[in-house]
């Protein structure tokens, strides 16, 4: 295992938000985190990135406590993509992606051909090389998210953590972003709201509720009607779709309204 938590706890305002979570992701695999709002997904991701310090327990990277890993070394190894990131500064797409090279450059160091190569490669991987000089504020939501992933890739990470990367995106861009993440070939931990997207794109799934890990395993092991009812309070049926993946159908207790 590359990145793992061991009985990790963290709280704020006198409330325990992450409560004894032990979880690990295998190299090159995509681990999805699902759970209701307030279940601790975002907090757990920030603990994994050392943006917050654990109250107890330990987060390890290749078996080493990340508390002992230098900030620059950690940033060269692990990248984080937030839900929404914005700026009032007039930046181009290239400017944003170049920020990903910061961990690899000494203070006041000149920009190198290696830096430029990493930026171009990241833009190529997300399909935005043609937007190299376009202003950030003119991009769509889906394009901005792809730029943030490119910025993370410019760090040349081995682990990539994403906090609800499909939030506020239309269906086409949701599929595009998660398909991109799936093809990257790096170890990924991604928090998601959509259970069908989690089933479609994740190798394994961890289910959080009230800060605790209730289940972890293959999508077909975890996404059961009983667990979904327990965690999300909804009834579902599950069928195998045309693509061979399990599809969750939500049951409603009323007839849909008349169509206009």
UniProtKB/TrEMBL annotation:
- Domain of life of the organism in this record? Bacteria
Tell me the CDD domains matching this sequence. ABC_Iron-Siderophores_B12_Hemin (cd03214)
Q: Outline the extent of the ABC transporter domain.
A: 3-235
Which Pfam families does UniProt cross-reference here? ABC_tran (PF00005)
* GO molecular function per UniProt: ATP binding; ATP hydrolysis activity
Gene3D superfamilies per the UniProt record, alphabetical: P-loop containing nucleotide triphosphate hydrolases (3.40.50.300)
**Which keywords does UniProt give here?**
ATP-binding, Nucleotide-binding, Transport
Under PROSITE patterns, the record lists: ABC_TRANSPORTER_2
- Keyword field contains Membrane: no
Which family does the record claim for this protein?
Belongs to the ABC transporter superfamily.
Protein's name according to its UniProt entry: Iron complex transport system ATP-binding protein
Organism equals: Ancylobacter aquaticus
Q: What is the lineage of its organism?
A: Bacteria, Pseudomonadati, Pseudomonadota, Alphaproteobacteria, Hyphomicrobiales
